[in-house]
Write a structure and sequence with these properties.
Number of helices: 7
Radius of gyration: 14 Å
CATH class: Alpha Beta
Shape: globular
Bound molecules: uridine-5'-diphosphate, magnesium ion
CATH superfamily: Nucleoside diphosphate kinase-like domain
Number of domains: 1
CATH architecture: 2-Layer Sandwich
Largest sheet: 4 strands, antiparallel
Number of strands: 4
CATH topology: Alpha-Beta Plaits
Strand content: 15-25%
Low-confidence stretches: none
Strand order of the largest sheet: 2-3-1-4
Order of helices and strands: EHHEHHEHHEH
Helix content: 40-55%
Length: 136
């Protein structure tokens, strides 16, 4: 059964640095997502390490955390029917070279690490990630 759900999206430093945040936000809105919450922040490295701790054993973990904390990011809660999957589809493959035409990563991603956007990969992780950035 499909239902309205929320997912966490991050416009990563490479895209914020190139002033692509408004353009990427408008792609989400055009594709039927509601932007429920948003904030622009800069993470400390230890916060990036916490956020990406699922990847802590990967060879790219340290560089990934350095990168995510290297500059401002725009964090958003997106809402739509089946938002998690819809966002993953709109983002495209992790490696922009492998992403389909019309996806955000195909359009804007620079490389497998500087791939412009993050999106939660499951409803369960979406809840954890939303809580991470927007608990109050
Ligand atoms: N990443 C990387 N090298 C890799 C794989 C991933 O630098 O070989 C980075 C990339 O920025 C990616 C993030 O680590 O978005 C998280 O990886 P994941 O496999 O969860 O990809 P995603 O869910 O972002 O598509
Ligand atoms: Mg992931």
């Amino acid at each position: 059964m499909s239902e309205v759900e929320q997912t966490l999206s991050i416009i990563k430093p490479d895209a914020v640095e190139r002033n692509l945040d408004q353009q990427i936000k408008s792609i989400f809105v055009k594709n039927g997502f509601k932007i429920i919450k948003e904030k622009k922040i800069k993470l400390e490295k230890n916060e990036a390490e916490q956020f990406y701790k699922v990847h802590q054993t990967k060879p790219f973990y340290n560089d990934l955390c350095e990168y995510l904390s290297s500059g401002p990011i725009l964090v958003m809660v997106l809402e739509k029917k089946d938002a998690v999957l819809a966002n993953r589809n709109l983002m495209g493959a992790t490696d922009p070279k492998k992403a389909e035409e019309g996806t955000i990563r195909k359009s804007f991603g620079i490389s497998i690490d500087k791939n412009s956007v993050h999106g939660s990969d499951s409803a369960e992780n979406a809840k954890i990630e939303i809580e991470f950035f927007f608990k109050n």
